[in-house]
Amino acid sequence: MSNALFDLSSRVAIVTGSSRGLGQYMARALAIAGADLVLTSRDRTRLLPFETEIKALGRRAVSLELDVRQRESIDKMTAAAEAVFGHVDILVNNAGSNVRKPALEVTWEDWNLVLDTNLRGSFFVSQAVARGMIARRYGRIINIGSVTSVAGYAGLAAYGASRGGIRQLTMSLADDWGQYGVTVNCLAPGWFQTEQNKVLYENTEWVEYLCDRIPLKRTGQPRDLDGAVVFLAAESSRYVTGQTLLVDGGISTGATRALPGAGRASGKPSAEPR
């Protein structure tokens, strides 16, 4: 199989929320595959060390301020990215937030924070960037979902609603923009340790419980998303759109033992940090 199917040379990718964690890993994978990068964060200064790292790989990179909850910020970032590189080929909608609370304790403000960031933000960033993609009749939009796009978890009402919405939004935009050569897909990670949830992984009993429910018997590791994000960004996925690709170790299969004691992991599972 030709490496050209996964070669991102001459492509320009925006990765929102790329100052740390999942967004930074995916941005790095795209750069290794050849893409130049637009890195974004609400605090631009937090991006500068990573920008230096990307440039050391021989790629061009620029760090831009972006608050996905503010329309003016989205428009300013998009204009700046196109001014620097002339075009944008790939968008990874990664910027996100979460509030973990029992449903009865979720406030109006909690709900708005999560939905405005994860769902509304992804839509309006996509809209702004897609205008240029449609004019050039080429684009790859990758919305970041979650296993909560397809499964419900107590304590994640707002987050699950936002990620379920991302899955539906992906299908709608794929239908809207496919005629212009723009594909839109959802990359949905399972349980990965990030800055947002690292306190959970300090509870070894909970980690063992979680890993026991994952067919591969471990949580996600940093490089587990590399192949998926490059695939969705490259020529390899040219006939794939409107889809949700779960990278979750299989937990979305249901992960409930049908036989008592069956399928238990041997030894003590480990939670690898992202």
UniProtKB/TrEMBL annotation:
Family statement drawn from the similarity comment of this UniProt entry: Belongs to the short-chain dehydrogenases/reductases (SDR) family.
Ranges where the Ketoreductase domain occurs: 11-180
Source organism of this protein record: Candidatus Acidiferrum panamense
Example GO molecular function: oxidoreductase activity, acting on the CH-OH group of donors, NAD or NADP as acceptor
Top-level taxon of the source organism: Bacteria
Biological-process GO terms, alphabetical: fatty acid elongation
Protein name: SDR family oxidoreductase
Pfam family, one: adh_short_C2
InterPro entries, per the entry: KR_dom, NAD(P)-bd_dom_sf, SDR_fam
